[in-house]
Amino acid sequence: MNIFRFAGDMTHLASVLVLLLKIHTIKSCAGVSLKTQELYAIVFATRYLDIFTDFISLYNTFMKLVFLGSSFSIVWYMRSHKIVRRSYDKDQDTFRHYFLIVPCLLLAMIINEKFTFREVLWTFSLFLEAVAILPQLVLLQRTRNIDNLTGQYIFLLGAYRAFYIFNWIYRYFTEPHYVHWIPWIAGLLQTLLYGDFFYYYFHSWKNNKKLQLPA
Amino acid sequence: AAAGELKDEL
Question: How far is A100 from chain B (nearest CA, A)?
Fold first, then answer.
């Protein structure tokens, strides 16, 4: 464990807590893409298949349970909670996220470190996570301005993978033979997708005005 | 890299 990875995990944890807090306290999911939340639930379900077979550490197992629990409960809130579901804008959240799942699955069948069930699904989860934010960013552009909590959620979600990139650089230089191109490239692409959001988020914060992405 | 190595990252 290194400071970059710990910072990344804490930032990731903060992002899901901000979203859960928003949905649970104000009972609203306005501006939040259910498609992105469903993709993240799939990401965690396919990445943590080893949660009961490979014990790494209490921290690792605890965090996996938190991410699995939070992502599935957010999906449940947005789909089934009688009050929250009313604030879900399904007419705007129209990104065909199944067009993301199939290509990621096919790509994972081709590009992976070992062609086994678990390894292919693990690789699939990395590719899917890289693009999972797209429905949310599209929804953001459609609904124009967004509330602060949703903006903070997206910012933290993007920042966590940026911390992971520093973690991979650190591990590359400190651990011999630590080379994993697949998460590195997927993680870099994921962080780049947040590029313009970070740009507008920073400027709205600097000029202290409402966050608005260009149409 | 040892492909079978444990996935210690989240």
Answer: 22
Exposed/middle/buried for A174, CB within 10 Å: 0-12, 13-18, 19+? exposed
Cβ-Cβ contacts under 8 Å, A167 against chain B:
9
The band of A78, judged by pLDDT with boundaries at 50, 70 and 90, is: very high
Q: Output the pLDDT for position B5.
A: 61
Contacts of A63 in chain B (CB under 8 A): 10
Residue A133 DSSP SS3: coil
Distance CA A33, CA A87 (A): 11
Residue A212 has pLDDT above 90, yes or no: no
Query: Is residue B3 scored above 70 in pLDDT?
Result: no
Longest dimension (CA), chain A: 53
**Is the complex ipTM more than 0.90?**
no
A183/B1 CB distance under 8 A:
no
